[in-house]
Amino acid sequence: MSSEAPFLEIENLTVKFGGLTALDNVSLKVPQNSVVSLIGPNGAGKTTVFNSISGFVQPQSGEIKIAGQKTAWPKTHKLAALKISRTLQGVGLFSGITALENVMLGSDHKYKAGIVKDLFGLSGRIDRQLRDSAMAQLERFGALSLADKFPHELSYPDTKRIALARALISEPELILLDEPAAGLGQDDIDELAETIRQLKKSCAVLLVEHHVDFVGEVSDQVYVLDFGRIIAAGDFESVKKSPEVLAAYLGGEVGHA
Amino acid sequence: MQTFLTALFTGTSHGAIYALVALGLVLVWRGAGLINFAQMGQAMFSAYIASTIINHHINYWWAFIVAIIAGGALGGAIDVLVIRPLKKKSGSSILSSPSMRDAIPVIASLGILGILQSAAGMIWAGEERGFPAPVSTLGLSIGKRAMPFTRFDIFVIVLIWLILIATTLLLNKTSVGLAMRASALNMEVARLSGIRTRSIRTLGWILSGSLASVAGLMVAPATNVSPNSLDLLMIIGFTACVIGGLNSLWGSVTGAFILGLTISFINIYDAPGDVFLGIFAILIAVMIFRPSGLFAKGKARNV
């Protein structure tokens, strides 16, 4: 594992919003089959890292390597083709369509269908395959019965399951999870932790999370951001003891967050 | 009874035409977030093109197909050449306020309407042209009984229902349709799911342009073709959208049929002069009691 190049490598990422420096020379690596977490106080720039990777934000400088290849910062609609998928803070499901259709939209197989084929009815087979694999994803999360429900009819943990299913249907090599545990009860968090451990077998995970116990439980590597800079990196136990981190963020909260 | 049925059939046939206009407006509204005031200008332009083809003694149906393609091409061109560049200039200070960002493309569409009407005036000297119908517009008799509808009414109703059904199938049963609906619901998440939202938006403009062209060709036998001949249709189509709810496809279509029937019954039982009174009475009632439209879910958008 360690001999392979990390799936994602970011070097010296700097993002400015007007006069505000949101990220300052941030570098991080996400090795294959590992879980890497970004933690830090509100406004530290965690989500901005995600937004840079997913093309919502144009960085001022910095380099990105995907699967060892130096590339341009990805365009949002190309992300799925690069085998990267992302969940959003909150939920980000489409409100007017069913859970099943939401999951179907996560697949990059729909590239193969096009307007011309659609008009001549040739895409029926692809549509059926897409539907089947979306059903399989729902089954994986025990959410088969929710297929025809609309997002506003679902409980909050269920919408999060659907969002995760949508992110996974494209079989990504890297998944960016933005606060997956936020708003969940302990049972759902335990289930999520188990899901992430399973995910690690097939892809890399980059996690932004406030729930410190959860981060400690699932992460192989933790980066701590504060005011746009990385102030500590390493495994959870060592990061927890770093004086900068204690001063900046964790303080006395560790252990009962 | 005969009068009642005549009003019913005429209203349904006109309502169907309004429905196409409304559908076109809704497609662009959902994709691009603006009311395309140039829509019937595009239709007028393609009706002139069709009329020119027919004047060269070429079959009606070729003209029909060319007009549909021309309407779609105009729609696509407007998006790519005008609307896209306007959205891209996000760095400019005038576009930094959200309300201006919404308003400017709408104003641009009014400008395009002006350009299309002037261009039609220059190219075709603004002449009012008659326009043929593909089937007879005179009263139809079966045996000795006069029917309360014409062949053309039936043709319009059948053709437009086929188009409405095809559009619904496209939106609900295909992956492109799913992508269109998703882009309308949430642009960011749609892009994140790998949908090329800009291309999808252009597709909406193309579809809308083609639908508007069909609508234009269906009213042209009654209104003739001139640079301003479709202005009224635009007003009625837009009113239908407001009545039914701009975000709801079938709501707008239903609104269009409500208007078609209202206009037809007022025309026949009351006086043509009261038609606008009727339209505005409905519009005002809807704005008061259900400001986001009869069939809309969710909240009204404050314009």
Summarize the structure.
Chain A has 257 residues and is an alpha/beta fold. Chain A is built from 9 helices and 10 strands.
Describe this structure in words.
The complex is a heterodimer of chains A (257) and B (303). Chain A is an alpha/beta fold and 257 residues long. Chain A has two domains: 1-83 and 172-257, Rossmann fold, CATH 3.40.50; 97-164, no CATH class. Chain A has helices spanning 46-53, 99-105, 115-119, 124-140, 156-168, 186-199, 212-218, 236-241, 243-250, and strands at residues 8-17, 20-30, 35-39, 61-66, 69-71, 84-86, 174-178, 204-208, 221-226, 229-234. In chain A, the strands form two sheets. In chain A, strands 6-7-8-3-9-10 form a six-stranded mixed β-sheet, sandwiched between helices. Chain A has a four-stranded antiparallel β-sheet with strand order 2-1-4-5, covered by helices on one side. In chain A, helix 2 crosses helix 4 (124-140) and helix 4 crosses helix 5. Residues 252-257 of chain A have low confidence and may be disordered. The longest helix of chain B is centred in the N-terminal third of the chain and has 31 residues, at 2-32. Helices cover 73% and strands 3% of the residues of chain B. Chain B has a two-stranded antiparallel sheet with strand order 1-2. In chain B, helix 1 (2-32) packs parallel to helix 5 (151-173) and helix 9 crosses helix 10. Chain B is mainly alpha-helical. Residues 299-303 of chain B have low confidence and may be disordered. In chain B, strand 1 and strand 2 form a beta hairpin. Chain B has helices spanning 2-32, 39-55, 60-88, 98-123, 151-173, 175-185, 187-192, 197-223, 231-244, 249-269, 275-289, and strands spanning 139-142, 145-150. Chain B is globular. Chain B has eleven helices and two strands; from the N terminus they run H-H-H-H-E-E-H-H-H-H-H-H-H. At the A-B interface, helix 2, helix 3 and helix 4 of A face helix 6 and helix 7 of B.
